Protein backbone atom coordinates (compact mmCIF):
# COMPACT_ATOMS: atom_id res chain seq x y z
CA UNK A 1 0.00 0.00 0.00
CA UNK A 2 1.39 3.39 -0.98
CA UNK A 3 0.88 6.15 1.64
CA UNK A 4 1.05 8.71 -1.17
CA UNK A 5 -2.37 7.55 -2.40
CA UNK A 6 -4.35 8.87 0.55
CA UNK A 7 -2.26 11.67 2.11
CA UNK A 8 -2.43 15.33 1.11
CA UNK A 9 0.78 17.28 0.30
CA UNK A 10 0.24 19.50 3.36
CA UNK A 11 0.28 16.47 5.67
CA UNK A 12 3.34 15.01 3.97
CA UNK A 13 5.19 18.33 4.22
CA UNK A 14 4.39 18.69 7.93
CA UNK A 15 5.49 15.09 8.50
CA UNK A 16 8.71 15.84 6.59
CA UNK A 17 9.32 18.93 8.74
CA UNK A 18 9.07 16.85 11.94
CA UNK A 19 11.35 14.05 10.66
CA UNK A 20 14.26 15.94 9.08
CA UNK A 21 16.57 15.42 12.05
CA UNK A 22 15.89 11.67 12.17
CA UNK A 23 16.70 11.29 8.49
CA UNK A 24 19.89 13.33 8.80
CA UNK A 25 21.20 10.93 11.50
CA UNK A 26 21.00 7.80 9.29
CA UNK A 27 24.25 5.84 9.05
CA UNK A 28 26.06 5.93 5.67
CA UNK A 29 23.55 8.18 3.87
CA UNK A 30 25.34 8.02 0.48
CA UNK A 31 22.72 5.72 -1.10
CA UNK A 32 19.93 7.95 0.26
CA UNK A 33 21.59 11.01 -1.28
CA UNK A 34 22.15 9.24 -4.62
CA UNK A 35 18.43 8.44 -4.77
CA UNK A 36 17.55 12.11 -4.19
CA UNK A 37 20.04 13.17 -6.85
CA UNK A 38 18.63 10.65 -9.35
CA UNK A 39 15.18 12.18 -8.86
CA UNK A 40 16.66 15.69 -9.39
CA UNK A 41 15.78 16.73 -5.84
CA UNK A 42 19.32 17.90 -5.05
CA UNK A 43 21.94 19.40 -7.40
CA UNK A 44 25.04 17.48 -8.39
CA UNK A 45 27.55 19.83 -6.72
CA UNK A 46 25.84 19.72 -3.32
CA UNK A 47 25.53 15.94 -3.54
CA UNK A 48 29.25 15.55 -4.22
CA UNK A 49 30.27 17.96 -1.48
CA UNK A 50 28.26 16.18 1.21
CA UNK A 51 28.98 12.61 0.07
CA UNK A 52 32.75 13.24 0.30
CA UNK A 53 32.66 14.37 3.92
CA UNK A 54 34.69 12.16 6.25
CA UNK A 55 33.47 13.44 9.60
CA UNK A 56 30.17 11.88 10.74
CA UNK A 57 29.07 15.13 12.39
CA UNK A 58 29.79 17.09 9.23
CA UNK A 59 27.89 14.50 7.21
CA UNK A 60 24.83 14.80 9.50
CA UNK A 61 24.91 18.59 9.25
CA UNK A 62 25.27 18.39 5.46
CA UNK A 63 22.31 15.98 5.05
CA UNK A 64 20.14 18.14 7.32
CA UNK A 65 21.03 21.21 5.27
CA UNK A 66 20.00 19.38 2.07
CA UNK A 67 16.65 18.37 3.62
CA UNK A 68 16.08 21.87 4.99
CA UNK A 69 16.72 23.42 1.56
CA UNK A 70 14.41 20.86 -0.02
CA UNK A 71 11.62 21.85 2.37
CA UNK A 72 12.10 25.57 1.73
CA UNK A 73 12.74 25.53 -2.01
CA UNK A 74 11.03 22.40 -3.39
CA UNK A 75 8.04 21.84 -1.12
CA UNK A 76 5.87 21.31 -4.22
CA UNK A 77 7.76 18.05 -4.87
CA UNK A 78 7.16 16.54 -1.43
CA UNK A 79 5.23 13.57 -2.84
CA UNK A 80 8.10 12.83 -5.23
CA UNK A 81 10.50 12.84 -2.25
CA UNK A 82 8.55 10.32 -0.19
CA UNK A 83 7.86 8.17 -3.25
CA UNK A 84 11.54 7.84 -4.14
CA UNK A 85 12.80 7.14 -0.59
CA UNK A 86 10.07 4.55 0.05
CA UNK A 87 11.41 2.28 -2.69
CA UNK A 88 11.99 -1.23 -1.33
CA UNK A 89 15.74 -1.20 -2.04
CA UNK A 90 16.13 2.05 -0.07
CA UNK A 91 13.91 0.84 2.80
CA UNK A 92 15.99 -2.33 3.06
CA UNK A 93 19.16 -0.28 3.68
CA UNK A 94 17.66 2.33 6.05
CA UNK A 95 15.47 1.07 8.94
CA UNK A 96 14.67 4.70 9.83
CA UNK A 97 12.86 5.20 6.51
CA UNK A 98 10.95 1.93 6.99
CA UNK A 99 9.76 3.15 10.41
CA UNK A 100 8.63 6.43 8.86
CA UNK A 101 6.71 4.56 6.16
CA UNK A 102 5.05 2.31 8.76
CA UNK A 103 4.13 5.41 10.77
CA UNK A 104 2.32 6.81 7.74
CA UNK A 105 0.55 3.51 7.07
CA UNK A 106 -0.76 2.88 10.61
CA UNK A 107 -1.71 6.51 11.24
CA UNK A 108 0.54 6.98 14.30
CA UNK A 109 2.12 10.02 12.65
CA UNK A 110 -1.02 12.02 13.57
CA UNK A 111 0.16 12.24 17.19
CA UNK A 112 3.31 14.10 16.17
CA UNK A 113 1.41 16.41 13.84
CA UNK A 114 -1.14 17.28 16.54
CA UNK A 115 1.68 18.06 18.95
CA UNK A 116 3.27 20.42 16.40
CA UNK A 117 -0.09 22.09 15.74
CA UNK A 118 -0.69 22.48 19.48
CA UNK A 119 2.68 24.23 19.93
CA UNK A 120 1.85 26.61 17.06
CA UNK A 121 -1.57 27.37 18.55
CA UNK A 122 -0.04 28.08 21.96
CA UNK A 123 2.48 30.43 20.36
CA UNK A 124 -0.31 32.16 18.45
CA UNK A 125 -2.40 32.58 21.63
CA UNK A 126 0.64 33.81 23.51
CA UNK A 127 1.23 36.34 20.73
CA UNK A 128 -2.38 37.56 20.95
CA UNK A 129 -2.00 37.88 24.73
CA UNK A 130 1.15 39.94 24.35
CA UNK A 131 -0.58 42.09 21.74
CA UNK A 132 -3.50 42.78 24.11
CA UNK A 133 -1.07 43.60 26.91
CA UNK A 134 0.85 45.96 24.64
CA UNK A 135 -2.41 47.71 23.69
CA UNK A 136 -3.18 48.25 27.39
CA UNK A 137 0.30 49.68 27.89
CA UNK A 138 -0.22 51.90 24.84
CA UNK A 139 -3.40 53.32 26.31
CA UNK A 140 -1.61 54.08 29.57
CA UNK A 141 1.29 55.62 27.64
CA UNK A 142 -1.10 57.89 25.71
CA UNK A 143 -2.65 59.01 28.99
CA UNK A 144 0.81 59.80 30.39
CA UNK A 145 1.65 61.76 27.22
CA UNK A 146 -1.51 63.82 27.64
CA UNK A 147 -0.54 64.59 31.26
CA UNK A 148 2.95 65.65 30.14
CA UNK A 149 1.48 67.90 27.49
CA UNK A 150 -0.65 69.62 30.12
CA UNK A 151 2.41 70.21 32.30
CA UNK A 152 4.45 71.53 29.37
CA UNK A 153 1.97 74.13 28.17
CA UNK A 154 4.19 76.90 29.53
CA UNK A 155 7.21 76.01 27.39
CA UNK A 156 8.67 78.80 25.27
CA UNK A 157 7.73 79.33 21.64
CA UNK A 158 11.38 78.76 20.58
CA UNK A 159 11.30 75.27 22.04
CA UNK A 160 7.93 74.53 20.46
CA UNK A 161 9.30 75.22 17.01
CA UNK A 162 11.86 72.39 17.28
CA UNK A 163 10.32 69.12 16.02
CA UNK A 164 10.90 65.76 17.71
CA UNK A 165 11.35 62.41 16.02
CA UNK A 166 7.90 61.17 16.95
CA UNK A 167 6.35 63.75 14.64
CA UNK A 168 7.45 61.60 11.68
CA UNK A 169 6.14 58.32 13.10
CA UNK A 170 2.69 56.93 12.47
CA UNK A 171 0.62 55.64 15.42
CA UNK A 172 1.18 52.09 14.19
CA UNK A 173 4.92 52.56 14.25
CA UNK A 174 4.88 54.00 17.77
CA UNK A 175 2.80 51.07 18.94
CA UNK A 176 5.31 48.51 17.63
CA UNK A 177 8.46 50.29 18.73
CA UNK A 178 9.90 49.78 22.22
CA UNK A 179 12.46 52.57 21.90
CA UNK A 180 12.12 55.88 23.70
CA UNK A 181 10.45 58.51 21.52
CA UNK A 182 10.81 62.24 21.93
CA UNK A 183 7.59 64.20 21.70
CA UNK A 184 7.59 66.80 18.95
CA UNK A 185 7.53 70.45 20.11
CA UNK A 186 6.04 71.53 16.76
CA UNK A 187 2.60 73.00 16.72
CA UNK A 188 -0.13 71.00 15.05
CA UNK A 189 0.11 71.18 11.27
CA UNK A 190 3.73 72.40 11.25
CA UNK A 191 6.57 70.50 9.59
CA UNK A 192 10.24 70.44 10.49
CA UNK A 193 13.49 69.10 9.03
CA UNK A 194 15.23 66.35 10.96
CA UNK A 195 18.65 68.05 10.85
CA UNK A 196 17.26 71.03 12.81
CA UNK A 197 16.12 68.97 15.80
CA UNK A 198 17.98 69.77 19.04
CA UNK A 199 18.82 66.11 19.66
CA UNK A 200 20.71 66.03 16.35
CA UNK A 201 22.97 69.02 17.03
CA UNK A 202 25.99 66.74 17.35
CA UNK A 203 24.99 63.76 15.17
CA UNK A 204 22.62 62.79 12.37
CA UNK A 205 20.98 59.51 11.35
CA UNK A 206 22.03 58.72 7.77
CA UNK A 207 21.29 55.99 5.24
CA UNK A 208 22.93 54.73 2.07
CA UNK A 209 20.85 52.16 0.27
CA UNK A 210 19.70 49.72 2.96
CA UNK A 211 22.58 50.52 5.32
CA UNK A 212 21.96 52.78 8.31
CA UNK A 213 24.53 54.75 10.27
CA UNK A 214 25.16 57.72 12.54
CA UNK A 215 27.09 60.75 11.28
CA UNK A 216 29.09 62.74 13.86
CA UNK A 217 29.11 66.40 12.78
CA UNK A 218 32.35 67.36 14.57
CA UNK A 219 34.31 64.49 13.02
CA UNK A 220 33.04 65.38 9.57
CA UNK A 221 34.22 68.98 9.99
CA UNK A 222 37.74 67.81 10.82
CA UNK A 223 37.93 65.21 8.03
CA UNK A 224 38.03 62.14 10.31
CA UNK A 225 36.05 58.93 9.93
CA UNK A 226 32.68 60.32 10.89
CA UNK A 227 30.04 57.63 10.22
CA UNK A 228 29.44 54.78 12.64
CA UNK A 229 27.73 51.69 11.18
CA UNK A 230 27.83 48.02 12.19
CA UNK A 231 30.28 48.95 15.03
CA UNK A 232 32.78 50.34 12.50
CA UNK A 233 33.87 53.88 11.63
CA UNK A 234 33.87 55.05 8.01
CA UNK A 235 34.66 58.09 5.93
CA UNK A 236 31.67 59.07 3.72
CA UNK A 237 33.14 57.45 0.60
CA UNK A 238 34.01 54.31 2.60
CA UNK A 239 30.47 54.13 3.99
CA UNK A 240 29.18 54.40 0.43
CA UNK A 241 31.27 51.39 -0.61
CA UNK A 242 30.38 49.44 2.54
CA UNK A 243 26.67 49.83 1.76
CA UNK A 244 27.12 48.50 -1.77
CA UNK A 245 26.77 51.86 -3.51
CA UNK A 246 30.44 52.26 -4.41
CA UNK A 247 29.59 52.34 -8.12
CA UNK A 248 27.83 55.68 -7.60
CA UNK A 249 31.21 57.32 -6.79
CA UNK A 250 29.40 60.30 -5.27
CA UNK A 251 28.72 59.96 -1.57
CA UNK A 252 27.10 63.41 -1.45
CA UNK A 253 24.13 62.13 -3.44
CA UNK A 254 24.04 58.49 -2.30
CA UNK A 255 24.15 59.19 1.48
CA UNK A 256 20.97 60.80 2.81
CA UNK A 257 19.55 62.20 6.01
CA UNK A 258 15.78 62.01 6.27
CA UNK A 259 15.47 61.69 2.47
CA UNK A 260 17.75 64.68 1.72
CA UNK A 261 21.25 64.21 0.28
CA UNK A 262 24.29 65.29 2.25
CA UNK A 263 25.36 67.37 -0.75
CA UNK A 264 22.23 69.51 -0.42
CA UNK A 265 22.71 69.91 3.34
CA UNK A 266 26.31 71.03 2.75
CA UNK A 267 25.24 73.46 0.04
CA UNK A 268 22.55 74.98 2.27
CA UNK A 269 24.96 75.33 5.20
CA UNK A 270 23.12 72.80 7.39
CA UNK A 271 26.20 70.57 7.46
CA UNK A 272 29.92 71.32 7.26
CA UNK A 273 32.42 68.98 5.70
CA UNK A 274 36.15 68.88 5.21
CA UNK A 275 37.66 67.58 1.98
CA UNK A 276 37.74 63.79 2.07
CA UNK A 277 38.92 63.20 -1.49
CA UNK A 278 40.02 65.86 -3.92
CA UNK A 279 41.34 65.52 -7.42
CA UNK A 280 42.26 68.36 -9.70
CA UNK A 281 40.33 68.03 -12.93
CA UNK A 282 42.39 67.95 -16.11
CA UNK A 283 40.61 69.98 -18.77
CA UNK A 284 40.82 68.63 -22.25
CA UNK A 285 40.17 71.46 -24.71
CA UNK A 286 40.71 70.28 -28.26
CA UNK A 287 40.52 73.02 -30.89
CA UNK A 288 37.00 73.88 -32.10
CA UNK A 289 35.35 71.58 -29.61
CA UNK A 290 33.05 73.47 -27.26
CA UNK A 291 31.33 70.23 -26.38
CA UNK A 292 34.60 68.78 -25.11
CA UNK A 293 35.20 71.87 -22.95
CA UNK A 294 31.77 71.56 -21.42
CA UNK A 295 32.30 67.89 -20.78
CA UNK A 296 35.65 68.55 -19.12
CA UNK A 297 34.07 71.18 -16.87
CA UNK A 298 31.36 68.78 -15.81
CA UNK A 299 33.96 66.28 -14.62
CA UNK A 300 35.42 68.68 -12.04
CA UNK A 301 34.74 67.64 -8.49
CA UNK A 302 32.98 69.97 -6.11
CA UNK A 303 34.21 69.87 -2.51
CA UNK A 304 33.63 72.15 0.48
CA UNK A 305 36.53 72.88 2.80
CA UNK A 306 35.83 74.36 6.23
CA UNK A 307 38.39 77.03 7.06
CA UNK A 308 39.56 77.98 10.55
CA UNK A 309 37.27 81.03 10.64
CA UNK A 310 34.25 78.90 9.78
CA UNK A 311 33.87 80.24 6.23
CA UNK A 312 33.44 77.89 3.30
CA UNK A 313 35.96 77.66 0.49
CA UNK A 314 34.44 76.08 -2.63
CA UNK A 315 36.22 74.68 -5.65
CA UNK A 316 34.75 75.04 -9.12
CA UNK A 317 31.07 74.21 -8.67
CA UNK A 318 29.44 71.94 -11.15
CA UNK A 319 27.93 69.44 -8.73
CA UNK A 320 24.20 69.27 -8.29
CA UNK A 321 21.91 66.69 -6.81
CA UNK A 322 22.54 64.42 -9.77
CA UNK A 323 26.17 65.41 -10.50
CA UNK A 324 28.89 62.77 -10.51
CA UNK A 325 32.04 62.89 -8.42
CA UNK A 326 35.21 62.05 -10.30
CA UNK A 327 37.55 59.91 -8.26
CA UNK A 328 41.07 58.86 -8.96
CA UNK A 329 41.45 55.29 -10.10
CA UNK A 330 41.32 52.91 -7.18
CA UNK A 331 43.46 49.77 -6.94
CA UNK A 332 40.42 47.72 -5.83
CA UNK A 333 39.40 47.18 -9.47
CA UNK A 334 42.32 44.77 -9.87
CA UNK A 335 41.47 42.58 -6.90
CA UNK A 336 38.80 40.07 -5.99
CA UNK A 337 37.20 41.06 -2.68
CA UNK A 338 36.06 37.47 -2.11
CA UNK A 339 39.60 36.06 -2.33
CA UNK A 340 40.70 34.64 1.01
CA UNK A 341 44.37 33.67 0.44
CA UNK A 342 47.20 35.50 -1.32
CA UNK A 343 50.61 34.15 -2.41
CA UNK A 344 53.06 36.79 -1.18
CA UNK A 345 56.81 37.31 -1.39
CA UNK A 346 59.46 39.39 0.31
CA UNK A 347 62.77 39.12 -1.45
CA UNK A 348 63.51 35.41 -1.88
CA UNK A 349 61.07 34.34 0.85
CA UNK A 350 57.57 33.25 -0.17
CA UNK A 351 54.44 32.46 1.84
CA UNK A 352 50.65 32.50 1.84
CA UNK A 353 48.74 35.37 3.46
CA UNK A 354 45.35 34.42 4.94
CA UNK A 355 42.77 37.20 4.93
CA UNK A 356 40.83 36.01 7.98
CA UNK A 357 44.00 36.10 10.11
CA UNK A 358 45.23 39.46 8.85
CA UNK A 359 45.12 42.16 11.53
CA UNK A 360 48.23 44.34 11.40
CA UNK A 361 51.98 44.18 11.05
CA UNK A 362 52.38 44.21 14.79
CA UNK A 363 50.66 41.08 16.06
CA UNK A 364 48.48 38.96 13.75
CA UNK A 365 50.22 35.81 12.45
CA UNK A 366 48.64 35.86 9.01
CA UNK A 367 51.42 34.56 6.70
CA UNK A 368 52.01 30.81 6.44
CA UNK A 369 55.42 29.56 5.28
CA UNK A 370 56.57 25.96 5.02
CA UNK A 371 57.90 26.05 8.56
CA UNK A 372 55.67 28.36 10.61
CA UNK A 373 53.10 31.16 10.86
CA UNK A 374 54.44 34.73 10.91
CA UNK A 375 53.13 38.24 11.28
CA UNK A 376 53.95 40.58 8.37
CA UNK A 377 56.76 42.17 10.42
CA UNK A 378 58.23 38.74 11.24
CA UNK A 379 57.97 37.80 7.56
CA UNK A 380 59.98 40.88 6.52
CA UNK A 381 62.53 40.24 9.28
CA UNK A 382 63.03 36.63 8.16
CA UNK A 383 63.49 37.77 4.55
CA UNK A 384 65.71 40.81 5.00
CA UNK A 385 66.75 40.96 8.64
CA UNK A 386 65.03 44.34 9.10
CA UNK A 387 62.97 44.74 12.27
CA UNK A 388 61.40 48.06 11.37
CA UNK A 389 61.06 47.80 7.59
CA UNK A 390 57.98 49.16 5.77
CA UNK A 391 56.19 45.82 5.53
CA UNK A 392 53.29 47.25 3.52
CA UNK A 393 55.72 48.00 0.68
CA UNK A 394 58.23 45.18 1.17
CA UNK A 395 55.64 42.38 1.03
CA UNK A 396 54.31 41.95 -2.49
CA UNK A 397 51.34 40.18 -4.05
CA UNK A 398 51.23 39.69 -7.82
CA UNK A 399 54.22 42.01 -8.18
CA UNK A 400 52.60 44.90 -6.29
CA UNK A 401 52.89 45.90 -2.60
CA UNK A 402 50.13 44.68 -0.31
CA UNK A 403 49.44 48.31 0.56
CA UNK A 404 47.32 48.23 -2.62
CA UNK A 405 45.21 45.45 -1.07
CA UNK A 406 44.78 47.55 2.07
CA UNK A 407 43.82 50.68 0.12
CA UNK A 408 41.27 48.66 -1.84
CA UNK A 409 39.76 47.34 1.44
CA UNK A 410 40.51 43.77 0.37
CA UNK A 411 42.67 43.49 3.50
CA UNK A 412 41.42 45.36 6.54
CA UNK A 413 43.43 46.38 9.59
CA UNK A 414 41.61 46.40 12.89
CA UNK A 415 41.41 49.51 15.03
CA UNK A 416 44.23 50.17 17.51
CA UNK A 417 41.61 49.87 20.25
CA UNK A 418 40.41 46.45 19.05
CA UNK A 419 40.36 43.80 21.80
CA UNK A 420 39.66 40.69 19.71
CA UNK A 421 41.80 37.58 20.15
CA UNK A 422 43.94 38.41 17.11
CA UNK A 423 44.68 41.94 18.37
CA UNK A 424 44.96 41.38 22.11
CA UNK A 425 48.54 40.15 22.06
CA UNK A 426 47.81 37.76 24.94
CA UNK A 427 50.19 34.82 25.11
CA UNK A 428 47.34 32.28 24.94
CA UNK A 429 45.86 33.87 21.82
CA UNK A 430 49.26 34.07 20.14
CA UNK A 431 49.88 30.41 21.00
CA UNK A 432 46.65 29.44 19.21
CA UNK A 433 47.91 31.18 16.06
CA UNK A 434 50.98 28.94 15.80
CA UNK A 435 49.07 26.22 13.95
CA UNK A 436 46.66 25.88 11.03
CA UNK A 437 42.92 26.38 11.55
CA UNK A 438 41.98 23.29 9.53
CA UNK A 439 43.12 19.70 9.16
CA UNK A 440 45.88 19.42 6.55
CA UNK A 441 44.54 16.00 5.49
CA UNK A 442 40.77 16.46 4.96
CA UNK A 443 41.00 20.27 4.51
CA UNK A 444 38.23 21.02 6.99
CA UNK A 445 37.95 22.30 10.54
CA UNK A 446 34.84 20.44 11.54
CA UNK A 447 33.35 20.17 14.99
CA UNK A 448 35.97 17.65 16.14
CA UNK A 449 38.91 19.14 18.02
CA UNK A 450 42.16 19.45 16.07
CA UNK A 451 45.46 18.04 17.29
CA UNK A 452 48.32 20.49 16.68
CA UNK A 453 51.93 19.61 16.05
CA UNK A 454 54.49 21.22 18.36
CA UNK A 455 57.23 21.11 15.70
CA UNK A 456 55.42 22.53 12.61
CA UNK A 457 52.28 24.58 11.79
CA UNK A 458 50.18 21.56 10.78
CA UNK A 459 46.94 20.50 12.50
CA UNK A 460 45.08 17.18 12.24
CA UNK A 461 41.87 15.47 13.17
CA UNK A 462 42.90 12.53 15.40
CA UNK A 463 41.52 9.99 12.90
CA UNK A 464 43.01 11.73 9.85
CA UNK A 465 46.59 11.44 11.11
CA UNK A 466 48.61 8.25 10.61
CA UNK A 467 48.91 6.61 12.99
CA UNK A 468 45.63 7.71 14.59
CA UNK A 469 46.14 9.96 17.61
CA UNK A 470 44.73 8.44 20.78
CA UNK A 471 43.96 10.43 23.95
CA UNK A 472 46.70 8.69 25.92
CA UNK A 473 49.23 9.77 23.27
CA UNK A 474 48.75 13.45 24.13
CA UNK A 475 50.28 14.59 27.41
CA UNK A 476 50.29 18.17 28.72
CA UNK A 477 53.92 17.90 29.81
CA UNK A 478 55.18 16.32 26.60
CA UNK A 479 55.46 17.74 23.06
CA UNK A 480 53.72 15.90 20.20
CA UNK A 481 55.20 15.70 16.71
CA UNK A 482 53.32 14.68 13.57
CA UNK A 483 54.47 11.98 11.12
CA UNK A 484 55.78 14.66 8.71
CA UNK A 485 58.16 16.02 11.37
CA UNK A 486 59.21 12.57 12.63
CA UNK A 487 60.00 11.51 9.07
CA UNK A 488 62.09 14.65 8.48
CA UNK A 489 64.14 13.85 11.58
CA UNK A 490 64.46 10.20 10.55
CA UNK A 491 65.91 11.15 7.14
CA UNK A 492 68.84 12.89 8.81
CA UNK A 493 70.01 9.72 10.57
CA UNK A 494 69.30 6.96 8.03
CA UNK A 495 71.99 5.34 5.96
CA UNK A 496 73.12 7.27 2.92
CA UNK A 497 73.36 4.13 0.76
CA UNK A 498 70.75 4.19 -2.03
CA UNK A 499 68.78 1.11 -3.08
CA UNK A 500 67.52 0.06 -6.47
CA UNK A 501 63.78 -0.17 -7.06
CA UNK A 502 63.53 -3.96 -7.04
CA UNK A 503 65.34 -4.27 -3.71
CA UNK A 504 63.14 -1.61 -2.08
CA UNK A 505 59.88 -3.18 -3.32
CA UNK A 506 60.72 -6.58 -1.84
CA UNK A 507 61.28 -5.30 1.68
CA UNK A 508 58.55 -5.95 4.33
CA UNK A 509 56.17 -3.13 5.20
CA UNK A 510 56.88 -3.63 8.90
CA UNK A 511 60.37 -2.25 8.35
CA UNK A 512 59.07 0.78 6.46
CA UNK A 513 55.81 1.58 8.27
CA UNK A 514 56.87 5.19 8.91
CA UNK A 515 57.68 5.74 5.22
CA UNK A 516 54.33 4.25 4.13
CA UNK A 517 52.39 6.38 6.61
CA UNK A 518 54.28 9.45 5.42
CA UNK A 519 53.53 8.67 1.74
CA UNK A 520 49.81 8.31 2.44
CA UNK A 521 49.66 11.56 4.40
CA UNK A 522 51.62 13.26 1.61
CA UNK A 523 49.04 12.12 -0.98
CA UNK A 524 46.07 13.17 1.17
CA UNK A 525 47.63 16.60 1.63
CA UNK A 526 48.48 16.99 -2.08
CA UNK A 527 44.94 15.97 -3.12
CA UNK A 528 43.48 19.43 -2.49
CA UNK A 529 40.00 18.55 -3.78
CA UNK A 530 39.94 15.17 -1.99
CA UNK A 531 39.14 13.52 -5.33
CA UNK A 532 41.07 10.33 -4.62
CA UNK A 533 40.33 10.08 -0.90
CA UNK A 534 36.92 8.35 -0.96
CA UNK A 535 35.26 5.46 -2.79
CA UNK A 536 34.46 6.74 -6.33
CA UNK A 537 31.47 4.37 -6.57
CA UNK A 538 29.64 6.50 -3.98
CA UNK A 539 29.33 9.47 -6.32
CA UNK A 540 29.85 7.96 -9.81
CA UNK A 541 27.01 5.63 -10.77
CA UNK A 542 28.57 3.91 -13.80
CA UNK A 543 32.09 3.69 -12.35
CA UNK A 544 32.01 -0.12 -11.92
CA UNK A 545 31.22 -0.52 -15.63
CA UNK A 546 34.61 0.90 -16.53
CA UNK A 547 36.72 -0.04 -13.49
CA UNK A 548 36.67 -3.60 -12.21
CA UNK A 549 38.92 -3.09 -9.17
CA UNK A 550 38.17 0.24 -7.50
CA UNK A 551 40.83 1.66 -5.18
CA UNK A 552 41.09 4.88 -3.18
CA UNK A 553 43.36 6.39 -0.53
CA UNK A 554 40.95 5.66 2.32
CA UNK A 555 40.95 1.96 1.45
CA UNK A 556 44.76 1.85 1.28
CA UNK A 557 44.83 3.50 4.70
CA UNK A 558 42.49 0.88 6.17
CA UNK A 559 44.62 -1.93 4.73
CA UNK A 560 47.82 -0.40 6.09
CA UNK A 561 46.25 0.07 9.52
CA UNK A 562 44.93 -3.49 9.41
CA UNK A 563 48.41 -4.88 8.57
CA UNK A 564 47.16 -6.44 5.33
CA UNK A 565 50.32 -5.56 3.36
CA UNK A 566 53.29 -7.89 3.69
CA UNK A 567 55.65 -6.12 1.26
CA UNK A 568 56.23 -2.55 0.17
CA UNK A 569 55.41 -3.63 -3.40
CA UNK A 570 51.81 -4.50 -2.41
CA UNK A 571 51.37 -1.10 -0.80
CA UNK A 572 52.82 0.78 -3.80
CA UNK A 573 50.78 -1.34 -6.26
CA UNK A 574 47.47 -0.38 -4.62
CA UNK A 575 48.32 3.32 -4.85
CA UNK A 576 49.42 2.94 -8.47
CA UNK A 577 46.07 1.24 -9.13
CA UNK A 578 44.31 4.48 -8.10
CA UNK A 579 46.12 6.38 -10.86
CA UNK A 580 45.55 3.58 -13.41
CA UNK A 581 41.81 3.60 -12.68
CA UNK A 582 41.74 7.38 -12.99
CA UNK A 583 43.36 7.24 -16.42
CA UNK A 584 40.98 4.47 -17.59
CA UNK A 585 37.79 6.21 -16.52
CA UNK A 586 38.73 9.79 -17.46
CA UNK A 587 39.97 9.30 -21.02
CA UNK A 588 37.48 11.94 -22.19
CA UNK A 589 37.77 14.15 -19.11
CA UNK A 590 41.05 16.09 -19.41
CA UNK A 591 40.55 17.96 -16.13
CA UNK A 592 40.48 14.85 -13.90
CA UNK A 593 43.00 13.09 -16.11
CA UNK A 594 45.46 15.95 -15.47
CA UNK A 595 44.78 15.75 -11.71
CA UNK A 596 45.65 12.05 -11.71
CA UNK A 597 48.84 12.57 -13.73
CA UNK A 598 49.98 15.40 -11.48
CA UNK A 599 49.45 13.37 -8.30
CA UNK A 600 51.13 10.33 -9.83
CA UNK A 601 54.27 12.33 -10.70
CA UNK A 602 54.41 13.81 -7.20
CA UNK A 603 53.99 10.34 -5.66
CA UNK A 604 56.70 8.68 -7.74
CA UNK A 605 59.19 11.39 -6.84
CA UNK A 606 58.29 11.14 -3.15
CA UNK A 607 58.57 7.33 -3.15
CA UNK A 608 62.19 7.53 -4.31
CA UNK A 609 63.00 10.07 -1.63
CA UNK A 610 61.14 8.25 1.17
CA UNK A 611 62.58 4.79 0.43
CA UNK A 612 66.06 6.12 -0.48
CA UNK A 613 65.85 4.79 -4.04
CA UNK A 614 68.31 6.01 -6.67
CA UNK A 615 66.95 8.59 -9.11
CA UNK A 616 67.87 6.43 -12.11
CA UNK A 617 65.52 3.61 -10.99
CA UNK A 618 62.31 3.09 -12.93
CA UNK A 619 59.04 2.98 -10.96
CA UNK A 620 57.65 0.39 -13.38
CA UNK A 621 59.94 -2.26 -11.96
From TrEMBL:
GO terms for biological process: humoral immune response. The keyword Thylakoid does not apply. It comes from the Eukaryota. Residues 436-488 form the PHD-type domain. Pfam families: Bromodomain, HSR, PHD, SAND. Gene3D superfamilies: Bromodomain-like, SAND domain-like, Zinc/RING finger domain, C3HC4 (zinc finger). Residues 1-109 form the HSR domain. The keyword Metal-binding applies. Residues 144-189, 278-336 are annotated as: Disordered. Residues 522-593 form the Bromo domain. Keywords: Bromodomain, Metal-binding, Phosphoprotein, Zinc, Zinc-finger. PANTHER family: NUCLEAR BODY PROTEIN SP140, NUCLEAR BODY PROTEIN SP140-LIKE PROTEIN. This is (Atlantic silverside) hypothetical protein. The lineage of its organism: Eukaryota, Metazoa, Chordata, Craniata, Vertebrata.
Amino acid sequence: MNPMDFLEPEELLRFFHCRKTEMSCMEKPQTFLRQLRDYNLIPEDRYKRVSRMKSKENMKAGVYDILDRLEREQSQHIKVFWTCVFKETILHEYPTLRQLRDSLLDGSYHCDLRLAERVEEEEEQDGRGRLALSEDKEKKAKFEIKKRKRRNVSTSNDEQEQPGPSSLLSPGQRKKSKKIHFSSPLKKGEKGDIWTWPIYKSQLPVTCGQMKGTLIREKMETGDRCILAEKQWFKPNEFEKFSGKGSCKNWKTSIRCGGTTLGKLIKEGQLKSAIYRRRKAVRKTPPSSNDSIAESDSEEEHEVQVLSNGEENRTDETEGEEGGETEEEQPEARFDHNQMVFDVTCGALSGTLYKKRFVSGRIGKSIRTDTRWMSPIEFVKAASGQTDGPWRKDIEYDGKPISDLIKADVLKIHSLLCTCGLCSGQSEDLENERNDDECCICKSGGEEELVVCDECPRSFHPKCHLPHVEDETLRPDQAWACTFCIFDQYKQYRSGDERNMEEAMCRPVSLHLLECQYLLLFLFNADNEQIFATNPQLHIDNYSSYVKTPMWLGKVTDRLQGKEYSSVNQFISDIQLIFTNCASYNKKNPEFLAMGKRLKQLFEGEVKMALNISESSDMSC
